[in-house]
Structure formats: C-alpha cells, structure tokens
Amino acid sequence: MADPRPTLTEIDPVWHRICEEAEAAIVSEPLMGGLVHAGVLHHATFERALAYRLSMKLASPEMSEQILREIADAAYAAAPELPAAARADLVAIFDRDPACHRFMQPLLFFKGFQAVQSYRLGHWLWANDRKDLAYYVQMRVSETFGVDIHPAARIGQGIMIDHAHSIVVGETAVVGDNVSMLHSVTLGGTGKEDDDRHPKIGDGVLIGAGAKVLGNISVGHCSRIAAGSVVLEDIPPMKTVAGVPAKIVGEAGCAQPSRTMDQMLAR
C-alpha cells in the first residue's frame, strides 16, 4: 500500500532542491562539508536553515546568534508569509541572475538575498512594535552587507538585488513585487521633511546600477530606470527613463523588464 503522506518534494520543492544541491556540493568539495552541513543539511526545513543563516550573519558581541535565531524562528512561526517571500526571492534570483546556478547559492553566499531576508525580519519586528530590535537588525544589515533598508519600508516578494552594495531604501519607500535592482541604488528623500517622502516603485520595475530615485514619486509598473539616472518625477508604466535628471527615452521594451534584465537602450 502506498504511503499516503506527502513527500518533501510535494511539500516544499525549493527546500528539497537545496538539500539535493547541498549533498552534491559536499561530494564535489569535501572541504565545504562543515559549512554546508551547518547551513543546510542539519536543518529539517527551509525556515530553520534561513533562521540559522541570518543569525550567523547578524550576530555581534551585543546580540548572540542564539537570541537572533530564536527571534527568527518566532517570526517565521507567526508570519509564514516571510519564508514564503524568501522562497519567491530565491527563485527570482535563480531565474534572473546568470551567476546563480543553484538554489543553494543565495541561501549560503549571496548577500543581496540575505540582506533582504534580514530586512523582512526587521520589518516584522517593526510591525509588532519591537522597534529597537528592528533598528538593531537594520544596523547589522548595514554593517554586514552594505545595505541600508529602513525596517518601516514596504517591500514585495520576488525581489532580486544583484551585487547588493550600497543599497539605500528609505523609511516610507514602497517596492512592489518582482522588482530587480543592481548595486548602489538609492530610494531616498529630497530633504529633511518628516512625512511620506520616499519613492513608490511599481511591480516588475528594473532599476539599473547607481540609479537614484528621490522623493515621494511613483515609478509605474514594468518600467526601466537606466544605470546612473537620477529620477525626480513620476514615471508612467512601461517606460524607459535615463539621464540626470531622468527623462523618458522610450518604451520599456518588453512586458517584464525586471525578469529579462535587459538594460540596453534602443538606438
């Protein structure tokens, strides 16, 4: 008689694939055995592995790995949308980043993925009125990954931050689903006002390296912002903007620019 219980693959195909890749990695490079066992194979679930990895990265002499792991475990138990978003982010990175060849890589090695998941933990703390802990997480994400995302910012899922160096996302910023951005992107304000002062990025937007989007402005869904641009005004959906200050230079070029990652301007 067949076992009626669902298999690991049916329950969580992302985690199943990570575990398979981890076992193959140890065969290929035995010197990685300790790291891969500790980071993946010692854990029964993706949630436990993610909590462990973030606690290792965010710990400091002021806050132990054990305390941070307990915080993450509690967050994932109370808010299953957090690890669900992490899975979506991981698959997005695999789909869009040509340097990502295995599901295991973002979990273990990619600071963009780890920084976003740490932000998600800090945002959960912020939403539950544990603001000092949220600020601690923000501080450690900035110190560890070079990524500064305010815990009050709202970020969707399916997010890829490639290279993830010098990313800044302000307190009242909103980022939609399936957004891709490269290093040195700023979603910032334009002064010292204390109100809704940061950009609102629509779904499916591609933001090139070094782009600055400033002020309480809207970037329409499935638009492209060229590398090095400074955006100071609203962008309609499905447009390409470039320059300082940025101007519309054409259509987005495709239905899903954040997925194709095509950053070339038409001539």
UniProtKB/TrEMBL annotation:
InterPro entries given in the database record: Hexapep, Hexapep_transf_CS, LbH_SAT, Ser_AcTrfase_N, Ser_AcTrfase_N_sf, Ser_O-AcTrfase, Serine_acetyltransferase, Trimer_LpxA-like_sf
EC number: 2.3.1.30
GO biological process: cysteine biosynthetic process from serine
Alphabetical keyword list: Acyltransferase, Amino-acid biosynthesis, Repeat, Transferase
GO cellular component: cytoplasm
Molecular function (Gene Ontology), one example: serine O-acetyltransferase activity
SMART domains xref list: SATase_N
Enzyme class, first EC level, given as a word: transferase
One Pfam family from the record: SATase_N
Catalytic reaction annotation: L-serine + acetyl-CoA = O-acetyl-L-serine + CoA
Domain Serine acetyltransferase N-terminal: 14-118
Keyword Iron-sulfur: no
Gene3D superfamilies associated with the record: Hexapeptide repeat proteins, serine acetyltransferase, domain 1
Keyword Acyltransferase: yes
Highest taxon of the lineage: Bacteria
Family: Belongs to the transferase hexapeptide repeat family.
PANTHER family on file: SERINE ACETYLTRANSFERASE
Name of this protein: Serine acetyltransferase
Lineage: Bacteria, Pseudomonadati, Pseudomonadota, Alphaproteobacteria, Rhodobacterales
